[in-house]
Amino acid sequence: MEHDVARAVSQAAPSAKELLIEALAIPSVSGNEAPVTQFLREQFRSLGLDASLVPVGEDIRNDPDYTHMYPDRSFEGRSNLLIERKGTGGGRSVILQTHVDVVAPDTGWDDAFVPREDGDVIHAR
């Protein structure tokens, strides 16, 4: 089975790389993550996965772990992307968590959202 997993990863690597480059080219400045989140939702749906947007409510401010760094920031129009692949039951669950927003680039940084490859490394905002 280990070889099957390695083979599957190797076969999927080129398309995963293309997906990554395409996603990184979408400006996702904090507060404006919707375009990249919607893009990723459609990509995961095209793979046959359940992918839905879950709105982030203003009540998140009541969460004791919420950062109050930006007390006036609105969460209107902001969503988390939930992707599910149901198993047959009895197995363990895996949760992967990340974020897609970035700090706005400095003025004059015209190619901030143009990913570039350097060998096996992709540099992007």
Describe the structure.
It is built from two helices and four strands, in the order H-H-E-E-E-E. It is an alpha+beta fold. The strands form two sheets. The protein has a two-stranded antiparallel ribbon with strand order 1-2. It has a two-stranded antiparallel sheet with strand order 3-4. The model has no long low-confidence stretch (mean pLDDT 88).
Furnish the topology, listing elements before pairings.
Blueprint lengths: L1 H23 L9 H13 L3 E6 L23 E6 L31 E3 L2 E3 L2
Antiparallel strand pairs: 1-2, 3-4
In brief, what are we looking at here?
By secondary structure, the chain is of the alpha+beta class. Helices cover 29% and strands 14% of the residues. Strand 3 and strand 4 (121-123) form a beta hairpin.
Notable traits:
4 strands; two-stranded antiparallel sheet; alpha+beta
Number of strands: 4
Largest sheet features = 2 strands, antiparallel
Rg over CA atoms, rounded to whole Å, is: 17 Å
> Which word captures the global form?
globular
Summed up, the helix count is 2
Helix share, percent: 25-40%
Uncertain runs are: none
Mean pLDDT: 88
Which class do the helix and strand fractions yield?
Answer: alpha+beta
> Biggest sheet: strands side by side, in what order?
1-2
How far apart, in Å, are the first and last alpha carbons? 37 Å
User: Secondary-structure element sequence?
Assistant: HHEEEE
